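Example record

The entry below shows one chain as it appears in the dataset: sequence first, then structure tokens.
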Amino acid sequence: MKTKISGSTIVVTGGAGFLGKHVVKKLKLLKPKKIIIPRSKDCDLRNFRNCLKVTKNSDFVIHMAGNVGGIGYNQKHPAELFDDNILMGVNIMRAARQNKIKKFVAVGTVCSYPKFAHVPFKEVDLWSGYPEETNAPYGLAKKMLLVQAQAYRQEYNFNAIYLLPVNLYGIGDNFDPESSHVIPSLIKKFIDARDKHSKDVVVWGTGRATREFLYVEEAAEGIVNALQNYDKADPVNLGSSYEISIANLAKTISKIVGYKGEIIFDSTKPDGQPRRKLDTTRAFKEFGFKSKIDFRDGLTKTINWYEQIFTKKTKKS
């Protein structure tokens, strides 16, 4: 039975973030009565009392808030990433259950999968090994949301679902070199190198590792579809089913931005997980989700958006 969204009150943690803004935009089309977006400066979700307050008298919770970053950020802050993410997850779901929320959508991460999971990753592979070491504290903290959701469903009949999106990219991404993921990091590197006429660009790792990327608007669509149409305990992958090596990704971005110099791969830096590619059969079967945006088209849209923002900021400064 389809979950009715119109006239409801929805709490969207992380609703002001990269993915969250796109989710909120899609939710508004369904005419909810109210969307509550807690901000960290006013509502620290690591505090249980704050979680009780923000979920009171609400119908649904979509939990996307997190402390997250790329490989370098993960290496510098493993304890902080574990603490922050596990505390936020445990507290917001516990509060939602106590406040009798009708449905809880927990958004996890592909980083929860074992380092050497069989490719493409199926949801049943989640417990077949330990995550890639640089991502493990973050990935395991987020995976506890699944354990909590299934435990609450079993003991309290609490309707909590768990989604596993792959690496996201798109308009509104984080381009801060200290915490950005691979696509925004490379876009900024190549545009800066092009504008400064640099002879080369250094990319972390060997370039042999592969990744799958999902355009952020499609991820938002999948999350909202699941809110409306999915009510089971089993986790669900959200991905594009398109796999590309970091080397080919770097070459593709350099061509789109018009960079003519050399690309150097620094093998002293970590590759991260060797391969990432999700099996998205369950998402299509359960709520009809399938990626449709061509990867190069999505990259071009993202790059064009960044160039417009970058140009505006440069002119102002």
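Notes for this example: Residues 9-170+212-242 form a domain with the Rossmann fold fold (CATH 3.40.50.720). The mean pLDDT is 95.
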